[in-house]
Design brief:
Blueprint (H helix, E strand, L loop, with lengths): L1 H12 L1 H18 L1 H4 L29 H37 L1 H16 L2 H11 L5 H11 L2 H14 L3 H8 L4 H9 L9
Amino acid sequence: MRAVGSFFVSIYRNKRSFVGFLILMMFVFFATVGPEIIPIREFGFSGRYQGPSWEHILGTDYQGRDIFGLLVHGSRDVLYIGFCSALFSILIGFLLGAIAGFVGGWVDRIIEFIANIFLTLPQIPVLLILSAFISVSNQLVMSLIIAFLSWAQLCRMVRSQMMSLKNREFISVCRVMGFSKLYIIVVEMLPNMVSYRS
């Protein structure tokens, strides 16, 4: 709890961080609670392309719908996709990076080669090309596609940390004692990477 308190104190003392934190909390509020209290109002054909006013804060679109209401309702999907894609990207990058760094050899070379390919791919053009061939039916599929294109950088970072940790004395002791590679990675190495910052 003390670490959480110091985190919020450091954000409050930095004006830019505090303003950014407020904007983030406002977006999270709109994404979670907003769709329940702010409806999507439609003003009909005569209400198309209206400018901002007290009745519709951000104006209306080509169908006469309130843009602010659309923004609030769409933010929930954006938040869900962002959270899931970040989670999947961390899982893929961390797993492959840990395997490459600890096992080494031809496994490391193959994973590093694939990661280098994904690092050189421009994500937005690739997403545009994929959208022409893949039908995105729900938010989970979109999250998986984004994660599939964004795991490589974390993989290389975790790989370098694993290569540094596997040469430590306590890892050598675990090998001498006959512990399995899975045990060494999960029990001995991962807790030492909790405080890792890129």
